[in-house]
Amino acid sequence: MAEAHQAVAFQFTVTPDGIDLQLCHEALRQIYLSGLHSWKKRFIRFKNGMLTGVYPGSPGGFMVVVVSYMSYNKYNQLDPSLGLIAKLDSQKIVGGVLVGTGLWVTIIMIMRNVLKCLLSWHGWMHARHGSVSLSTRLWMLFVKVFSGRKPMLYSFQNSLPRLPVPSIKDTCSRYLESVRPLMDDEQYERMKGLTKDFEKNLGPRLQWYLKLKSWWASNYVSDWWEEYIYLRGRGPIMVNSNYYAMDFLYVFPTSIQAARAGNAIHAIMLYRRKLDRAQIKPIYLLANKVPLCSAQWERMFNTTRIPGLETDTLQHMNESKHIAVYHKGRFYKVWMFYDGRLLLPREIEQQMERILADPSEPMPGEEMLAALTAGDRTPWAKARETYFSRGKNKQSLDAIEKAAFFVTLDDTEQRYDTNNPVKSLDSYAKSLLHGKCYDRWFDKTFNLIVFKNGTMGLNAEHSWADAPIIGHLWEHVLSMDPVKLGYNEDGHCRGQTHPNLPGPQRLQWDIPSECTEVIQSSLTVARTLADDVDCHIIPFSDFGKGLIKRCRTSPDAFIQIALQLAHYRDKGKFCLTYEASMTRLFREGRTETVRSCTIETCAFVRTHHPTLTRVEERLKLLKVAAEKHQNMYRLAMTGEGIDRHLFCLYVVSKYLGEDSPFLKEVLSEPWRLSTSQTPLQQVELFDLVKHPEYVSSGGGFGPVADDGYGVSYIIVGENLINFHISSKHSSPETDSHRFGANIRQAMLDLLDLFQIDKKDMK
What we know:
Transmembrane segments: 50-72, 92-115
Distance between the termini: 69 Å
Structural class: alpha+beta
Number of helices: 24
Mean pLDDT: 88
Largest sheet: 8 strands, mixed
Family: Belongs to the carnitine/choline acetyltransferase family.
CATH topology of the largest domain: Chloramphenicol Acetyltransferase
Helix content: 40-55%
Keywords: Acyltransferase, Fatty acid metabolism, Lipid metabolism, Membrane, Mitochondrion, Transferase, Transmembrane, Transmembrane helix, Transport
Radius of gyration: 29 Å
CATH architecture of the largest domain: 2-Layer Sandwich
Main location: mitochondrion
Enzyme class: transferase
CATH superfamily of the largest domain: Choline/Carnitine o-acyltransferase, domain 2
């Protein structure tokens, strides 16, 4: 093949007349352009690192401070340098620059610490929606003044406050309050005794160590959370940890698989370039005034979860110029750069077409190789060390693990079918969540999955970051694909193919029969898990957040209360409920739990029956429950949640070799209803008024408990809420479709209370 010859920069042969040296100028040119690209990237990273390191200062500010200082000193004959300039009489300019630099650094540190103090105040969260107090306005003004100009993605990292450690007393009190509706009097009194004993005896000792860590580490939770909740897990990460994101439901930009992959991959690489250059804007709350932590973006690309015998690790590469692609049992390495530039969408489509047209068969053991990433972690770690640590297997595995991300050209068709909406969406969700169990590389930070009919989606690994981070990338891709990049009338990407573009590199494997047995064993485990998942998706279009807001109720609180009502009708009982909130108001913050099954919500649910309670009374109870939920959400976001604190106390107790019956029981309680909202973060990218269909339909995850439900929901525009429900077929207590019907009815019932009370809302 021509590309194989071009890959060699020079050739030489020894003849009787001497050495015949033949240089390949094209190969040398590509080497030069590749090196030039790398050095440009290093320079940009260095420059951005400098700008971020001195933020909210700037090079312009440095010049102003130094020149102003030297001018002031010259005309006023003052020496704030305490004699430094006098000693450097022959080098007054150098002395002035040194002192000016010190003054500039001092100003930066003052601004940074003032901003950190300002961002530690969260009183603005308690204001009624739509109203801003005078104190909050003044606070916002000061935040703006001390935030500097033109911040980049990581500019605020050094100005964010540290996550505070709640008091033992507050955590224990809130814990008892959260479990009260789930226990009878005898159970509650027993748990109350365990809690009080812990609060008085072991708790303060563990708290001392935790406070010591909070003073020393950037975040007292995140490193332990990543290690013990994710990386030390020995079960499959497929279904249990990985989650998925869906394509548009009602828009089909092209039915050509290679073309859809071309635009999507190009859009993802453009996002990576913006990320490398720190050109992605920080995420804010409260009218773009309160910045959130951006640390989780650092490992989005070029990262893989590496299996270990006892714990996994995250391997991150600073640079990766290729992607890994899977199609019909074959793996490929595809370079993303040529002629010193990123491949254009039509050129990437050209590469995908070559893969799709490849008639070769998978090598022995190759087709189901990725099942190793879908099964238990320890067998995969042993197999990796035994069979993939040398030779061509190591080279091929490195090509996958060091790729920017992983792409699957799926040979099945998935799409929302209006003639069969339930079955088509359920099949689509299951395919994104686990596929065939051997056609996704579940260890990569994310897999781009492009189906045969042009529909696509993502499968993401969870340990490196939380769903809003990958959601930010996915919003960028969906906004770029059909509108900004677009397609020709025939469905192909815009632009031209490249006549000299080297083709994809087929990865080579030498997999022995012993390894094939391990692969089959992992596949058996994975298939058993996948076949047990019951997925159901509800595009709820009866109403959306627009009507809920007119009820003067938080949309999230409204949905969470509806979920509690639906669960009670579904199972006839309440359960410990997990709602994910974020703690990214703090440095390196990740998530906290909102225990949304509250005493107030249970009181409302129990009386929600037309024959038992008047409408006015039920509406009053609903508003009380919604306000309680909002308060709990605020506490979780501001570092006053209970579950991460209890988790870290448990970790400390294990390090100290202390056995705590209280912590052991708390950490073993199952979350039978696990919920999460997928936020729409970049509303400006989509015109949801004219084109409400041009937005992601959200994503979902597997059930956390064997006898429980997983529910993810996304509020799309003003009139649509998509629910993603999961459970297990093996549980006689659960049925995702039944629960979905209960959710729909509960949403309608809650709205009816307001419609009856407020006639003008029809």
